Amino acid sequence: MPREDTPAQKPSGEDGFGRWFRFWNRFEYAVLHVIGPPRLSESMDPRARLKREYERRRTLHEQWKAAR
């Protein structure tokens, strides 16, 4: 029986974890590391935001895979 927070269908769109998202996320992180703003607070730092979004989508994808 799937848990309530486990997605029934493969995450897509704003929650997708495809190759394009993973590539673009890493590319954007690298660019921000080189020419981005200096370290900001955790809530304002764009690199921290990218990391949180990557982790959120990866967790959602792993939950979906485990429920299959």
What does this protein structure show overall?
The protein is mainly alpha-helical and 68 residues long. The protein has a domain at 19-58. Helix content is 57%, strand content 0%. It contains two helices and no strands. It has helices at residues 19-35, 46-67. Helix 1 runs antiparallel to helix 2 (46-67). The longest helix is centred in the last third of the chain and has 22 residues, at 46-67. The radius of gyration is 14 Å and the shape is elongated. The mean pLDDT is 87.
List the helices and strands and how they pair.
Blueprint: H1 19-35, H2 46-67
Helix pairs in contact: 1-2
Structural class: mainly alpha
Low-pLDDT stretches are none
SS strand fraction: under 5%
Helix/strand order: HH
Helix percent reads 55-70%
Estimated radius of gyration? 14 Å
Q: Give me the count of strands.
A: 0
Mean model confidence by pLDDT: 87
> Main β-sheet, in a few words?
none
Oligomer: single chain
Shape: elongated
Number of helices: 2
End-to-end gap: 10 Å
